[in-house]
Amino acid sequence: MALEDAKTTVDEAFTRQSLSGLGFENTFGGATSFLRRRYTKDLTGVDLAVTGVPFDQAVTNRPGTRLGPRAIREASALQSPDAPYGWGYNPMEALNIIDYGDCPFDYAKVADFPAALQAHIARILSARTGTVTLGGDHFITLPILRAYAEVYGPLSLIQFDAHSDTWTDDDMTRIDHGTFVYKAIKLGLIDPARSVHVGIRTDNPDSHGMNIIDAREVHEIGAKSTAAKVREIVGESPSYLTFDIDCLDPAFAPGTGTPVWGGLSSAQAAATLRDLAGINLKGGDVVEVSPPFDTTGATAIAGAHVAVELICLWGWSHLKMGA
Predict the structure, then answer these.
(1) What pTM does this model have?
(2) Sign (positive or negative) of CA dihedral 140, 144, 146, 149
(3) Going from the N-terminus, what domains does the chain have, and what CATH number goes with each?
(4) CA–CA separation, 186 and 170 (whole Å)
(5) Nearest to residue 306, comparing CAs of 50, 96, 55?
(6) What is the pLDDT of residues 54-83, one digit of tens each?
């Protein structure tokens, strides 16, 4: 789309003709699809689908993340149409990206939700399309991993988080955002020896074989060395990256359910994600953005930035590395 067309372009979420290309709509107007991508369920020719999961019935503390996908989409309008900083290419021009809308489910039938989400993601993957998912609480990653493991086998999980989410829970019917990693390990969805937590700052006596780069280590060794350690752990294995926004210190992301002090800064997270370029990323998500506690919008803005970095990482592995 040419810049001169911007004056007459409205609601690119519906009127956009191409699945790639830049967007110039006013940041304060129009339908808020993610990055002004087209809203569509047609996966023909689509490289990457952004989808939302407005679910927060698995939280242990403050709810509100069901409103996260909408807030992240709105915040994404602030992103520049120019190439994301530090990447050297623009995935919005190089990739066909859509906003696939939200996962449909009946909020009153919570037990049916995991299967509904797994089927939602599986439908996208069946079209040979990747996903970047906007949460929602962190439980949503478990059904997503189920769908991905059916395609790629056990994955390497890269988890940015204040909490390990590895609390013992052998009841696979329980829906809890604090036990999804434990269950993913037990179900064989991820290989803990090739997986890593980044930013942890709460104790769990059993790591269940997961590698840990806690928040203090990130502060001490810096983003570049942190990314190098992550890359060494996951190697070339198919990887899934999940970013709990509470990995960031509450000073940078107050709008979340279980904030913990001592976390990463936005700058540390941004540099670490960019230095992961080259991993074999198959998909990713950003979760736990809770707008009711996000009085300035800073948390949603951070979530939108993380989602853009995930898009860039996915594009890098598929365009540059041929994954």
Answers:
(1) 0.94
(2) negative
(3) 34-320 (3.40.800.10)
(4) 8
(5) 50
(6) 999 999 889 999 999 999 999 999 887 777
